[in-house]
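Continuing from the previous page of notes. For each protein in this section, the sequence appears first, followed by its structure tokens. Read the first protein now.
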Amino acid sequence: MSANVETMMYVREKPWHGIGTMVAEAPTSADALRLSGLDWSVNQEDLFTVTQKVSGYKANVRSSDGAVLGVVSDRYRICQNTDAFAFTDNLIGGDVRYETAGSLQGGKRIWLLAKLPDTQILGDKTEPYLCFTNTHDGSGAIRAIMTPIRVVCNNTLNIALGGAKRAWSARHTGDLDAKLGEAHRCLDMAGEYMDALAVAADKLANTTVTDERIQQILSEMFPLEEDASDREKSKVKQIKDEYMVCYFMPDIAKFKGTEWGAVNAMADMVGHNYPHRNTKNYRENNWGRIMDDHAMMDKLMTLLAVNV
């Protein structure tokens, strides 16, 4: 079993190594909570040394097995797993369906992935998802993240847009209920992001880029020193070759020679290719990078000098 993924629920296809419960149809929140193994709560307990109570800090303890998930300040406010599902239900409204949900790192981090209505971007079916992530160890904020996926090639269009945000977050302090109540602007954020992505995609698809410029950009992204070893040269060549394989894939053919084709090729490479240092947790770590911003995608957009 992976060191990162503890429990999970997924619909139809195994997301990475097959841990968890597969279901034929995306469940509602009540079933997803149970099927993903998230039907536990977090309690705060006092900390003690051998002789006295530790002031100012609490232990976040899981109800199901007594595991200590983290040590936090006494200002920390817990967002329970049930609260996370309720938040997503209330945010989207109606009969919310969850594609996947689960627990990472022994319960320290949990996630939910809810599907939003399909849309079209440049004639391609695109499935927008809202990913809600939370930590119970004090290491991060509560976050809601837009994750659009280009269905034909299962590429995550993780593109930073200057005019539209794809993430909302709230710290585990203060009036947490009020923060979650205000977070309905996430849904507005989701709509604004998808609208802006469609506009950006159209602009990128109508901007040409030559093969020579692509090679120049790759050299800037993966530079080599003059005294680089043969091993370093081989590694960079392999990365460039992997990118070009993605660039010439059939699903990108209609966008070849455009900046949108270049962006989709990078999305394909960072989302699906194996790493050059194949650690046992690379799939889970790659998933985390996709949910957040990905440095290679951001770098490519910068080098393309895209003003979106």
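Done with the first. The second protein uses the same format. Note its length before scrolling.
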Amino acid sequence: MKEICISSKEAGIRLDKYLRKLLPAAGSSFLYKMLRKKNILLSGAKAGGQEILKEGDIIKIFFSDETFEKMRGSGEADAGRLERGRRAYREAEGIEILYESEDLLFADKPAGMLTQSDKGGELSLNDWLVGYLLEKKGSIDAKQLPSVMNRLDRNTSGIVMCGLNYAGCRFLADTIKGGGIRKIYLALAEGTLEGRGELKGYLVKDEANNKVSISDKGEGKPVVTRYRVLEKREAHTLLEVELESGRSHQIRAHLAHIGHPLAGDIKYGGHPHKGKSTQYLHAYKLIFPVNDKEEPEMSGRVIESRISF
């Protein structure tokens, strides 16, 4: 029996489409038959194939190892990913490991690097993670490849959470899904802000232009952005920001909405700063909930990176 924990990368895909990609030699009719006979379960329940996968879902496949490998096909995709990992580890620069255990790794991603590969096939932090483990261990199980479990924008730097195996991926997926991890950012905003603030609004996404906007009216998804001033500068204010909702581009759009776009964030109305035309935004601190039942070393742990704007 195989157990697969769905990460943020696979979330949003239909179950049948995911299974066809995972087991390309199986054939659709065979997979639907296995679903009907409950030889494939989704989060412990019978599934039809049309379900949309969510982060943290568990797929159980009751095949023998021989059958599973046969359905996977030649394994060329795994070999390709391992080679991408080796190349990413050789070429990537500026990645710092902040914490590592048997199951988990937290890396500080530099701005300009993708968290996970896109359709263009550019190397990503996820590829680097595979290469790092290959360099460290010499080999890894192609069926237990590590995975990045949260996503940062290309030009947002900061802490990325990684599961090194099934146990690590499942722990992070469950904890993220439960909303127990506090995620805190550093942001350099244009202009002067005072003290503390709580910004509320509704976020609307423009998919075509990969951009969001904030409305004060009840349109879109409700968002809450909290900030406190850390340091005032001549033309900018350094902020500590925490999200209650955590939507795509939320900090960038919300600060722009109140007339204080991020330094360098041209997309949202900011101006180049110190020669940079990318946002000054860094995911710098994670605070885990107190919970000693699973991964006890993470109970109440604070992961923090070092950065200066």
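What the second structure shows: The mean pLDDT is 89. The longest strand covers residues 221-232. We return to this in next week's lecture.
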